[in-house]
Design brief:
By secondary structure, the protein is mainly α. The protein has 32 helices and four strands. Among the domains are: 175 residues, no CATH class; 155 residues. The relative contact order is 0.04.
Length: 630
């Protein structure tokens, strides 16, 4: 009957002194030969170890001790026992030193759930238990009691300095031990002394929490965060990878789920360290691992899903130089955010489709100019499907990247698919608006028909691409890129617009009185003339600003035009004042705009308006308003 009670969690909860009863059971068993033999038997467990019946009694109770006073009572009972009796109860613990932490820690963890907890009293209790354990010759048990004192002082009494002193006193009594360094590192980590914590991790991480895979993964994660906070990103990546391996081999499902977050943290560290390919592949694998996990099953699962997607959104913004916001806040990357072991409940936040996240990775891959296999594997992950509005963004990103590189052959090769998606957008605005991150609409963007290629939208899309390339090449003094573009005319797919633009950019002559042709003439002129008069610069500035406003490639085009205009107009007011009308009155407004904080199209509009009195060209009131509204 007593044995059944000591095996029962419900019965143990009702007993005043379970350890005393265990000792009573041992004494009674010594009287009966059959029970005496039972005491000597060892039963194998799933972890490969064997356990005695008394050891099992003690561990069963110790792992569920409800309070620090109950733990103290257990220690007091052990203190009255003979060395042989203590060995019988504690033998299984001493065989695996890491288990001592479970026995010691459960009581204060339970106390932390109560309000208020008498932490000063608990601090004294653990000091007494440490003395008792040391007097029995159980060093590791004593060490864990000292570590518990450090935790209480640091986390609950908010006295980190005294906590460190307590650990130093423990070392003086018991000698140095990885458990003490681990406790010190945790204190330094909590008070954000990342350098001190990392120093301890570097010197002793191999010995810390070796037996407990979950605890080891937490420790390695903290080391990764410390390295990241010190901008040691390559090292942080290694720590997160080691933490992931430890978590992946742990028994706890929640710790295994943390391994997914650690993979994402590792990938983000790789990105910060400059290894974009590893970052993209790591996040892609993290998505694969999350795909089989229902985000609604737990707070942890929902958190991992949302924060891994958030990290992909952040990386997308970094790789594509796109400002990204979630609500009113810009996306941020915090070291270790994906693997937070105690995450907040984010279930009230939207959860985007994994397929959307994969498209963001594709855009990041294209923008980074690397080949990580993300785009190559996209259709496999999507089971052969596509999301048209995301396909449009992918094609746009590709055009932007090729435009920045002035890669004429690849640019012309990508032009038809770009025109196709512009036509698709005009014809399918409703379905595009209905498709969103939470409920994507799947479909395909078809190749444009010959009739569609004659539409105003198709012609504008092709002209836009060619003129944007021409402007970029001219402003960068890349006549070789313009020559390469002209050479690619023969490779433009039949039916796609652009031949007229090719012709004007090559010859610089046009009788057409439409904006695209005005811009093409200016591309030729700026490319062929190193020095421009103020009037010539004014006309080019107007045409390029007009086109940037109209262009679908404005994101790439505008900063280049702005930089060129700043440089050229600064040169004019310093070196060509004699060519300006009324320089005494016309130069100050130009200088004021150049020195202002305005950027982009707004800057260009104000600069052109400010420059008008200094040149011989005039525009009407409506055009002035247009410029000031940019």
């Amino acid at each position: 009957m007593l044995a059944k009670a000591l095996f029962s969690q419900e019965a143990l909860a009702c007993l005043h002194d379970p350890v005393g009863l265990m000792l009573r059971f041992e004494a009674l068993s010594q009287i009966d030969p059959e029970w005496r033999a039972t005491l000597q038997q060892r039963t194998p467990s799933t972890d490969g170890r064997t356990h005695s019946i008394l050891g099992t009694f003690f561990i069963t109770y110790a792992l569920r001790i409800p309070s620090v006073p109950d733990l103290q009572r257990a220690f007091d009972s052990l203190d009255t026992a003979t060395p042989a009796q203590r060995a019988a109860l504690l033998g299984d613990v001493s065989d695996m030193p890491g288990d001592a932490g479970y026995i010691v820690n459960h009581a204060w963890l339970e106390e932390s759930k109560r309000e208020p907890a008498d932490w000063p009293a608990h601090l004294k209790a653990y000091a007494r238990m440490a003395e008792q354990a040391n007097s029995w010759g159980y060093r590791d048990l004593a060490l864990r009691c000292h570590v518990a004192r450090g935790i209480i002082l640091d986390e609950y009494l908010k006295d980190a300095d005294t906590a460190l002193q307590a650990l130093d006193q423990a070392e003086a009594l018991l000698g140095n031990d990885p458990a003490l360094d681990r406790a010190r590192a945790k204190i330094f980590f909590r008070r954000k002394d990342h350098e001190a914590a990392l120093r301890l991790f570097r010197s002793n991480a191999g010995e810390m929490d070796r037996q407990d895979r979950a605890a080891r993964s937490y420790m390695l994660r903290e080391a990764g965060i410390c390295a990241a906070e010190l901008s040691q990103w390559a090292e942080a990546r290694e720590w997160f990878a080691a933490a992931r391996e430890a978590a992946g081999s742990a028994l706890s499902p929640s710790v295994k789920l943390m391994a997914v977050g650690l993979r994402a943290d590792e990938a983000l560290a790789a990105f910060k360290a400059g290894d974009v390919i590893a970052a993209l592949r790591g996040l892609d694998v993290a998505l694969n691992e999350l795909a089989s996990i229902d985000p609604a099953t737990s707070i942890v699962a929902g958190y991992r899903h949302r924060v891994v997607r958030h990290s992909i959104l952040w990386l997308f913004g970094q790789a594509t130089a796109t400002p990204v916001q979630v609500g009113d806040e810009s996306t941020m990357m915090v070291p270790g955010m994906c693997s937070n072991p105690e995450p907040a409940d984010l279930s009230d936040l939207p959860l985007g489709s994994i397929d959307y996240a994969r498209y963001l990775l594709v855009q990041a891959e294209i923008a980074s100019g690397v080949s990580a296999g993300i785009e190559e594997g996209l259709r496999i992950h999507l089971k052969g499907r596509a999301i048209p509005n995301m396909e449009m963004l992918v094609r746009g990103t590709r055009m932007e990247v090729l435009l920045r590189r002035l890669d004429a052959p690849s640019y012309i090769a990508a032009l038809p698919s770009w025109v196709d998606c512009q036509i698709y957008m005009d014809l399918n605005r409703d379905s595009i608006w209905q498709s969103g991150p939470e409920k994507p609409v799947y479909g395909e963007i078809p190749s444009a028909t010959s009739r569609q290629l004659k539409s105003e939208r198709a012609i504008l899309a092709a002209d836009d691409a060619l003129l944007s390339f021409g402007i970029m090449a001219a402003l960068r003094n890349r006549t070789d890129a313009l020559d390469a573009l002209s050479a690619e005319e023969k490779n433009l797919m039949p039916g796609y617009s652009g031949s007229k633009i090719f012709e004007i950019v090559a010859a610089g002559v046009s009788d057409e009185e439409e904006l695209p042709f005005y811009v093409a003439v200016q591309v030729y002129y700026v490319a062929q003339h190193v020095d421009l008069t103020p009037d010539e610069l004014f006309v080019a500035s107007v045409r390029f600003a007009q086109w940037a406003k109209k262009s679908s490639l404005q994101k790439v085009l505008t900063p280049v035009i702005e930089g060129w205009a700043r440089l050229r107009w600064s040169h004019v007011i310093e070196e060509q004042r004699f060519n300006l009308r009324s320089p005494a009155s016309s130069v100050p407004p130009i200088r004021a705009v150049l020195e202002s904080s305005e950027t982009g199209l707004k800057f260009l509009g104000k600069l052109i308006v400010a420059a008008e009195p200094a040149v011989h060209h005039r525009f009407d009131r409506s055009f002035r308003q247009f410029l000031l509204s940019l």
